[in-house]
Amino acid sequence: MSHSLTLVCPLPNGIHARPASRIAEFCAGFGAAIRWRNQRNGQMADAKSVLSLIGGDILFNDVVDIEIDGAESERVAAELSRFLKQTLPHCDEPLAAAPAACRALPRGLAELAPSPCFGQPAGQGVAIGEICVHRAYRMPEPETLPASRGLDRELAELGLAMAGLGERLLGEAARLDGEAAAVSRAHLSLLRDSDFRARLEEAVAAGASAASAVAAAVAHYRAQLARSASEYLREREMDIRDVGRRLLDILAPGLEPGAAELPAAALLWAEDLAPSELLALDRSRVKGLLLARGGLTSHTIILARAFSLPVLTGVQHGAIAAGIGETAVLDASLGALFLSPSPEVRDYYLDEEALLACQRQRLARACGGASVSADGQRLELAVNIASAAEAQLGFAQGADGIGLFRTEMLFMDADEPPSEDAQFQCYAEVVRLAAGRPVIIRTFDIGGDKPARCMSMPQERNPFLGYRAIRMYPDQEAAFRSQLRAILRAGEFGPVKVMIPMIATLAELRWARRLLEEERAALGVAEPVPLGIMLEVPSVLFQLEAFCREVDFFSVGSNDLTQYLFAADRDNDRVGQLYDSLHPAFLAALSQAAATIHRHGRWIGLCGEAAAAPHALPLFLGMGLDELSMSAPSLQACRRRLRELDAGRCRELLARALQCADGAEVRALVENGAARPALPMLTEDCLLPDVGWRSKAAVIKGMVDRLWLLERCDDRYGMEEDLWLREQAYSTGLGYGFAIPHAKSEHVLHPTLCLARLAQPVDWGASDGLPVDMVLLLAFNAADAGAAHLKFFSRLARLVMHDDFRQALRGERDPERLQALLRDRLEGAA
């Protein structure tokens, strides 16, 4: 039996590694053969092979004929049709748009007459450093690698290398967050691809060594992708090369060049850079990247942007050859590189660095202090970690504690469980860094999607519902007791809590508590250590009263609780639409649990992916959760959103959310009901007394920079240019030493009046020829201004005509009185 389908590819980036892995995973569950044929180029693809699908060069709007042959082909066709309509369009999240290169330099920079070379910007930011050249890895030719030492030996070594790399990639995906984890998962799908493995084994069977088989396979797939009509798909060849490079590092170590010593601040040039090479760099020294190759959608660029590294691509070696070893300035926001900058240009960028540092400091202040809502409700914001380095980053971002220490990372790449002393050193370092803040250490959560070779794991059809976490502890009792002792010893240095994952029954909890108490007594630890559980198995919800009498705290694992509540594997595309942590059913379960737990005087936090979701924060605040734990980069934004929310309104919002039909309705409700509050038009932060700007361009740039720092405009270059367009039409210098630059701009977020008193008057081209020492900048959003823009400008212009107003502004030094003066005189202008 056979059935046919037709697909018009809906993905703007075509079928590349991430959607291909989802398609292959879906199709692998069927016994029928599924072949795709791209009508545009005639390429055939096995739908169960990631690499075969990528090799089909299927682009946006390509028409694909799908043939299904074998048993139950009719049922397979029906399910595949639903997948293609409902799931495939969402299999590739749109990439954040990269900024376009701004060839026209801002006026304040252009007047310094720099001579930049340009590239394609792949992120924001400025970096000053010494240009260095990366020692590139070159994929060896197959014939240059060692010859085969026999079929059985080569196949065995190939299998061990692939298994070893697979474990590393699994560990990376579990340890990393966001884009870095997504890249590791994509590389894992390539490594596990059936077409890739078959090609390697065929080459070895034909007499090649495992290493030369890898090199030949990589060359084949790279050549195949290089022929693609899509730049996006051509960029995926770097992923193939990276997987091959890492396999060769196991099979034929020593091929990679040694790492060069980098200066304290380096701008690193490379022909191209693989994702794993970027991850291996010392990012404390690498301040920016200059790449000859690498499109905006390559995984290397995606990672660089996630790490906030400024990057320029399309920078050929000849463009930087004269500057190697010399200081240069990289401005990724403008797409410009300044080799051997003049002192004036360097000073300009030192000011830029100071501005960006000021922005970071403002964010740091926003993330400091108590985590409270606008009406004073406390909600701790903690960090999820797997190492002391991540803890350090989290505390630098203002974390209130460690909400989840994933200790299984210590077990992942080990041949045997880590010793008690090795664990103790790791835990104690984190507790010391916490400096009195609470540290929740989760005992090893191995199994499911996190196997570890140091512990034997059975093959299971559904490992998420099988032998994992607490369920394997009785068989690994020595390792569990060793970990408990290490945690108890680390508790000498600060407050530590023990959390047990995957608890489903009271019997499991009581067994774990008994072992904890036995080890505490054996060590002579006087004070009990709080014992909590991951609330992730729905059975606990129905015995919550009993659990509250026996545990000290709960931490919701939103990822697992969501998938178990809806019986929907979060990684299974066929049921992926059911997995939704904002569905009213999930919110109701969590809200009821929080109420019960608090009624018993217990504490409840949440440490899954939902903790950092913007739409979820108002609802979690409304529930009265005690803590949210997330990755370090999410902390600042979450704390700032928290401080804008009213807990009382959030409780009302939650009540309405529980009446919604699905998660989509909840999201729409939150968007409409938790809007960002408007800012006053004039605050003390908008008053700039006695600034030292020495030109009209510097004044406009400085005032726009202030608006940007205050988050009153979202694009300082665009806002600056809008002001200059007004100045080109006519000078806003009104005379008497006053200027009122003004604009209606799409980049203005809040209507703003900003005042600057200049230490030295500057030429403004005023009508009376006098230099300007008082500047009143007026900014409105283009869509919202209406007549208010001209009304304010007219009112200000009339006020400037009055000598008493000019004298009052010049003479008043107290910011509060100056603000009151402006507000009173402008009353009625809005």
From TrEMBL:
<keyword id="KW-0963">Cytoplasm</keyword>
<protein>
    <submittedName>
        <fullName>Phosphoenolpyruvate--protein phosphotransferase</fullName>
    </submittedName>
</protein>
<dbReference type="GO" id="GO:0008965">
    <property type="term" value="F:phosphoenolpyruvate-protein phosphotransferase activity"/>
</dbReference>
<keyword id="KW-0670">Pyruvate</keyword>
<dbReference type="Pfam" id="PF02896">
    <property type="entry name" value="PEP-utilizers_C"/>
</dbReference>
<keyword id="KW-0808">Transferase</keyword>
<dbReference type="InterPro" id="IPR040442">
    <property type="entry name" value="Pyrv_kinase-like_dom_sf"/>
</dbReference>
<feature type="domain" description="PTS EIIA type-2">
    <location>
        <begin position="680"/>
        <end position="825"/>
    </location>
</feature>
<keyword id="KW-0762">Sugar transport</keyword>
<dbReference type="InterPro" id="IPR008279">
    <property type="entry name" value="PEP-util_enz_mobile_dom"/>
</dbReference>
<dbReference type="GO" id="GO:0016301">
    <property type="term" value="F:kinase activity"/>
</dbReference>
<keyword id="KW-0418">Kinase</keyword>
<keyword id="KW-0598">Phosphotransferase system</keyword>
<dbReference type="InterPro" id="IPR000032">
    <property type="entry name" value="HPr-like"/>
</dbReference>
<dbReference type="GO" id="GO:0046872">
    <property type="term" value="F:metal ion binding"/>
</dbReference>
<dbReference type="Pfam" id="PF05524">
    <property type="entry name" value="PEP-utilisers_N"/>
</dbReference>
<comment type="similarity">
    <text>Belongs to the PEP-utilizing enzyme family.</text>
</comment>
<dbReference type="InterPro" id="IPR001020">
    <property type="entry name" value="PTS_HPr_His_P_site"/>
</dbReference>
<keyword id="KW-0813">Transport</keyword>
<dbReference type="InterPro" id="IPR002178">
    <property type="entry name" value="PTS_EIIA_type-2_dom"/>
</dbReference>
<dbReference type="InterPro" id="IPR008731">
    <property type="entry name" value="PTS_EIN"/>
</dbReference>
<dbReference type="Pfam" id="PF00381">
    <property type="entry name" value="PTS-HPr"/>
</dbReference>
<dbReference type="InterPro" id="IPR016152">
    <property type="entry name" value="PTrfase/Anion_transptr"/>
</dbReference>
<dbReference type="InterPro" id="IPR006318">
    <property type="entry name" value="PTS_EI-like"/>
</dbReference>
<feature type="domain" description="HPr">
    <location>
        <begin position="2"/>
        <end position="94"/>
    </location>
</feature>
<dbReference type="InterPro" id="IPR015813">
    <property type="entry name" value="Pyrv/PenolPyrv_kinase-like_dom"/>
</dbReference>
<keyword id="KW-0460">Magnesium</keyword>
<dbReference type="Pfam" id="PF00391">
    <property type="entry name" value="PEP-utilizers"/>
</dbReference>
<keyword id="KW-0597">Phosphoprotein</keyword>
<dbReference type="InterPro" id="IPR036618">
    <property type="entry name" value="PtsI_HPr-bd_sf"/>
</dbReference>
<dbReference type="GO" id="GO:0005737">
    <property type="term" value="C:cytoplasm"/>
</dbReference>
<dbReference type="Pfam" id="PF00359">
    <property type="entry name" value="PTS_EIIA_2"/>
</dbReference>
<dbReference type="InterPro" id="IPR050499">
    <property type="entry name" value="PEP-utilizing_PTS_enzyme"/>
</dbReference>
<dbReference type="GO" id="GO:0009401">
    <property type="term" value="P:phosphoenolpyruvate-dependent sugar phosphotransferase system"/>
</dbReference>
<dbReference type="InterPro" id="IPR035895">
    <property type="entry name" value="HPr-like_sf"/>
</dbReference>
<dbReference type="InterPro" id="IPR036637">
    <property type="entry name" value="Phosphohistidine_dom_sf"/>
</dbReference>
<keyword id="KW-0479">Metal-binding</keyword>
<dbReference type="InterPro" id="IPR023151">
    <property type="entry name" value="PEP_util_CS"/>
</dbReference>
<dbReference type="InterPro" id="IPR000121">
    <property type="entry name" value="PEP_util_C"/>
</dbReference>
